[in-house]
Design goal:
Two copies of one chain form a homodimer. With 352 residues, the first copy, chain A, is of the alpha/beta class. Chain A is 44% helix and 15% strand. Chain A has helices at 10-17, 21-28, 36-49, 55-60, 74-83, 89-103, 120-131, 146-154, 177-190, 206-221, 237-248, 262-274, 293-296, 308-321, and strands at residues 67-73, 107-113, 135-138, 159-162, 171-174, 196-200, 230-232, 256-259, 284-289, 302-305, 333-334, 338-340. In chain A, the strands form two sheets. Chain A has a six-stranded parallel beta sheet, with helices on both faces. Chain A has a six-stranded mixed beta sheet with strand order 7-6-8-9-10-12, with helices on both faces. In chain A, strand 3, helix 8 (146-154) and strand 4 (159-162) form a beta-alpha-beta unit. In chain A, helix 6 packs parallel to helix 14 (308-321). Chain A is elongated, with a radius of gyration of 25 Å. The termini of chain A are far apart. The model of chain A has no long low-confidence stretch (mean pLDDT 94). The interface between A and B is large, with 63 and 63 residues. Chain A binds a DNA duplex (16 and 16 nucleotides) through residues 3, 5-6, 9-11, 19-23, 25-26, 28-29, 32-35, 38, 53-54, 56-63.
DNA sequence: GTGAAAGCGCTAACAA
DNA sequence: TTGTTAGCGCTTTCAC
């Protein structure tokens, strides 16, 4: 392997433009104190030579690394990739994050980190030391892991917390889970439903509670009883089966169910089929996440759309601008969720 | 922003172990000429202090960057992310690539590059200059873009070419497209099918031809005529509609169709439904790619499984070891595709 | 087998 | 407004 060196360095540009390294550096970084004429001269040398600064060198000399680190839960992510059930969480993160990074000359690097493990700290420290990212994006359940936020805080690395209220630092961003659940409930009420069941997600995620709360509020607004219409799952298909068997095994069973994930909604659909309950004629079904699978099932699922791409995009933006202005949002940035109505919901069955 | 410095550097380790920087460097990089005892002493200092080398510094001083760059087609990738049709190509790349990278202390960075555009070269040069990756993974259709391979060749950056035969350099890896298409054809023949239609993919991808060739061979082996049973699409759903209308509009229509992508197979299913042709009773359907959607449609699609994760994993491995041994595979590395049989295929209708 | 010195490409701090 | 100097953390080269 021949020692690979930078083809065009700041020196070449400086020589070509007949200025000092510093002036070139100022131009690259859009810093003040450069005459316009000078700036143009340098820029034209840059363009002519096709000069691109080495981010390694930039990082070395103590400035930015132009790297944003996105932290995801290792087990869950790998499991999702292996299972191939069409969850496109990572894709949507990339869509929002990479493109926004690219706009600013940054890159996004994904890192998988264990949640439960003792070596979260070691792993994260290693990633920070190796990469020295300018910002870190935390996704649930990392967003509320004090080991992680504490470390980031201690190392003074700016970080965004998706799905967190942000107590104790960082930029909190939430996706309007409660409002979305409430609106979905309202919509079902509008369709005449009175017994609306809810399948909650894992307690490990705070958004599970928010979603449930939205349903609760929606029901209360309509003056409908909640009774024991809420059953807890863990977002996975199997837990959805158990929850749906519980809800649909009752007499009378709920005429509508909101599931906190698409997989649990699918499970509910399958249980309904098992029991001869037609969707949407006898049971309306709404799910959370709106992963691709919702459009391919029969019937297609009405789903609350998590605006992942937009949220990550905002997070990246805030992280990058955090370098200049220090004005960071203290109260959570709310990216509202959408609702995609498909044929899995309909009017409540008459007489129910 | 306080100037963020490395917490623990090679100096700290050297001081702690009472050796020179050089010796520590040798230990980190597993180089020879260090006594075992010395190595242990240094290693224990490293562990004690939790030292992790900065990849920026490593790159600066002319060694590796510990970065592998994965190049994907910009338009197609963004389009796929936006459409949310469950293609998990990127996820599978990450699954194979990231994990293998992690094993070796590398990271994978995804970069989107235009294919058709004039500035492929500028974009790629910029990415190489900024990141200085130790290796590049090319995916179709970049794998056979001479502008790209030429540039990589000129810059002496090791690169892998997925879905390419590798004329002109780089490490070629293919996913057994021809064999897979042939085997699928054989399976359909086995089920009694005689008129097996084929929907080809875009000519821009070489694997389109390989897939078609496999079908051709399979048909020839069985002594079946090909006639005009092959129609070309572009992998997308809409092109599948056109192709399927053509094939299924004939009298007699094919009793089986192999589509070169899941989306085109879905289109064929929809056209069949439109025409009242039952799947699999009157039409057997096989697709390529085996993206998640295949399991959620009704009926679930039999599909040839592209071993993307495994292929990218192999590519990363070859790229990383390319640094030590210079023995790179010249003839294409073949990762065989799988075949997942689901209920979209069945015996040929009697009398057909 | 080990260490000392030079330098990678860039920016911070300071000087002019 | 511009230039000079001194590193950043590491590996290379070469001396011992």
């Amino acid at each position: 392997m021949p020692r690979r060196r930078q083809a065009v360095t700041i020196k070449h540009v400086a020589a070509d433009a007949g200025v000092s390294l510093q002036t070139v550096s100022r131009v690259i970084n859009n810093e003040p104190n450069v005459r316009d004429e000078m700036r143009k001269r340098v820029q034209s040398s840059i363009d002519k030579l096709g000069y691109i600064p080495s981010i390694a060198a930039q990082r070395m000399s103590g400035s930015r690394s132009y790297l944003i680190l996105a932290l995801n839960d290792r087990d869950r992510t790998i499991e999702a990739w292996r299972a191939r059930q069409g969850s496109d969480w990572v894709d949507q993160m990339l869509l929002g994050g990479m493109l926004k990074c690219a706009e600013h000359g940054y890159r996004m690097v994904i890192e998988l980190v264990d949640t439960h493990n003792d070596h979260v700290e070691r792993e994260l420290k290693a990633a920070l030391a190796a990469l020295q990212p300018d910002g870190v994006i935390l996704t649930p359940p990392h967003s509320d892991n004090p080991l992680i936020t504490g470390l980031l805080e201690a190392q003074h690395v700016p970080y965004a917390r998706i799905g967190s209220l942000g107590e104790g630092g960082g930029i909190p961003l939430v996706m309007g889970d409660e409002e979305a659940a409430r609106d979905a409930t309202r919509r079902l009420v509008e369709l005449g439903h009175k017994r609306i069941g809810f399948i909650a997600g894992s307690n490990e995620y705070r958004l599970s509670e928010w979603r449930k709360q939205g349903w609760r509020v929606g029901m209360a607004e309509a003056g409908l009883p909640i009774d024991n219409l809420c059953v807890r799952g863990d977002f996975g298909y199997d837990s959805g089966l158990v929850a749906a068997r519980d809800l649909l095994g009752r007499d009378p069973h709920p005429t509508a169910i909101i599931a906190s994930s698409d997989q649990m909604a699918l499970a509910a659909r399958d249980v309904a089929a098992e029991l001869g309950i037609a969707v949407p004629d006898h049971l309306s079904l709404v799910s959370f996440d709106n992963t691709p699978v919702t459009t391919f099932t029969s019937p297609p699922l009405s789903a609350i759309d998590q605006p992942i791409a937009e949220t990550v995009s905002r997070a990246v933006e805030l992280l990058i601008t955090a370098h200049r202005s220090k004005e960071l949002p203290q109260s959570p940035v709310v990216i509202p969720a959408g609702f995609v109505e498909r044929s899995s919901i309909g009017p409540a069955p008459v007489g129910a």
